[in-house]
């Protein structure tokens, strides 16, 4: 079952949504003017993107920490390839924070100067698959596929938005020496959020007081993000969510794949992925008991 052309088209090895990203835009990003102070968050979809966006916003913006500014995280840490709110990136004050799902070979050339900070967040692919499946039900720009088995086969074949999870993760890891990059995992954030925030601050050279650090960690918990309209994408522009079908932030846990995948589906998944993942360095955690 091939992806619907209404929702996806493939360009330079990557699937994009035709309404929001054109080939011309992707080509233009190669020459996007980079500042040394820029920070780029890189993820494959459903790997902790919004969570890390929120952490970065809390670290860099006092008005987010003390709630004196009502600015959505999509404007604090906007998408490079999906400029939904038509922000003027060229005239944004430094340091600029950006988010992207792009593979290593499509990001702006300037990121390879090894001075621009890049944070890559990965998540175990079984949970990515299940989260992606539920996500496709509530976002109108994604094709809803009611049959999980069909969705899983599309995911395994890389015929989904942002293409192959394995190619995305492996590409960034194999080319890590071309960037100044910090690798994190969703599972680490579940297990030790404070430790992850400290690692991010250290990598970015940001010093926070103990009080500010405590505030960042507290406000970045999954439960608090669900209650914060600035952080949870429930108020995404353009009415992109069908709210009667679910919430943008769902469970924030590890091992939810067990509640959806059958034994046979799990075996099929491991047949495709397990061997290919063996030489990746990420310490993937597959269930919640291991994460806490």
Automatic annotation (TrEMBL):
UniProt keyword annotation of Transferase present: yes
Compartment annotation: Cytoplasm
Transferase in keyword set: yes
Tree of life domain: Eukaryota
Domain Sulfotransferase: from-to ranges: 37-280
SUPFAM superfamilies in UniProt: P-loop containing nucleoside triphosphate hydrolases
Keywords attached to this entry: Cytoplasm, Transferase
InterPro entries noted in UniProt: P-loop_NTPase, Sulfotransferase_dom
Coiled coil start-end: none
GO molecular function, one term: sulfotransferase activity
Similarity annotation: Belongs to the sulfotransferase 1 family.
Name used for this protein in its record: Sulfotransferase
Organism field: Alligator sinensis
Organismal lineage: Eukaryota, Metazoa, Chordata, Craniata, Vertebrata
